[in-house]
Write a structure and sequence with these properties.
The protein is of the alpha/beta class. It has eleven helices and eight strands. It has an eight-stranded parallel β-sheet. β7, α9 and β8 form a beta-alpha-beta unit. α4 runs parallel beside α6. The two termini are about 25 Å apart.
Length: about 270
């Protein structure tokens, strides 16, 4: 199977120096390596650089957004910069989204366990979160929402239930939502229900051991046109981007579905420059 345009929608190239010491003990410290070198070795064409502010839990400030854009300038075709607005700390939610879009951010990341609120907290008074979703919807920016657990110190995994994305998809029907991690390892049934219900929802399979992907989602082929490849590299448990790809290619899925998940679906979400 010939694949030359694989997109990994979920890797972490972040300002590691901002991480809090207890988080560094869990996260591979590494260094700010050249993402394109790692991608070349793995046979990956493009990658989404996940960044978002979480000053109180992870240590990342709003400077992470500028970091992502600056890093991606090394190869604008292959590196897709992601950024975020912290719903609990922002003073100008709509303006902050506009500034991200104007910077060149390609996707806005919301991380409920690391930002201390459920994904639908706008239904319970956190109006800034609803403003972020609305402005992303208006600007055509996809939103990636973390689902599932997090092992980092201070992370609140109770906010990782994908069912809360049901509200978001109902209230912002034109918003393109990427459900990161498919609720792993606890909420896969909820994740699949929400994904089936809402046509504007995408599933990012990063953080799920590829060899077990069909154990997590036995009916994955039914929605293969909305599944996005991702690894979560270099998070704990992800040894190598290429090993993950090879394990995925060994699954009993059709070549058409494999190609859609690895290549063509991401091109629909992030069209390549012409």
């Amino acid at each position: 199977m010939h694949l030359t345009r694989i997109t990994d929608v979920h890797i972490h190239i972040q300002p590691w120096r901002e991480l809090k010491p207890p988080v560094l003990e869990v996260m591979w410290r590494g260094k700010e390596v050249s993402a394109t070198e790692v991608m070349d070795r793995a046979g990956v064409w493009r990658a989404g650089l996940v960044n978002y502010p979480s000053p109180d839990v992870m240590g990342f400030t709003d400077a992470t957004n500028a970091f992502a854009v600056k890093y991606a300038q090394a190869d604008r075709e292959r590196l897709l910069p992601y950024g975020g607005v912290h719903p609990r700390f922002t003073k100008d939610a709509a303006g902050d989204v506009d500034r991200l879009a104007d910077l060149g951010i390609r996707l806005v990341k919301i991380h409920p366990p690391h930002q201390g609120m459920p994904a639908n907290a706008y239904t319970d008074g956190l109006t800034a979160l609803g403003t972020i979703y609305r402005r992303c919807e208006e600007r055509g920016l996809p939103v990636m929402i973390h689902t599932g657990t997090s092992i980092f110190p201070g992370a609140r995994s109770k906010y990782g239930n994908p069912m809360e994305l049901d509200d978001v998809a109902i209230d912002f029907p034109d918003l393109r939502i990427v459900m990161a991690h498919g609720g792993r390892p606890l909420y896969m049934e909820e994740a699949f229900f929400v994904l089936r219900r809402h046509r504007g929802m995408w599933l990012d399979v990063s953080g799920i051991p590829p060899a077990r992907l069909l154990e997590y989602f036995p009916r994955l082929s039914e929605l293969a046109d909305r599944v996005l490849w991702g690894t979560d590299w270099p998070s704990p448990g992800v040894k190598d981007m290429r090993i993950n790809i090879d394990q995925f290619l060994a699954l009993p899925l059709s070549d058409a579905h494999k190609k859609a998940i690895l290549e063509t679906n991401a091109l629909a979400l992030f069209p390549a420059p012409r």
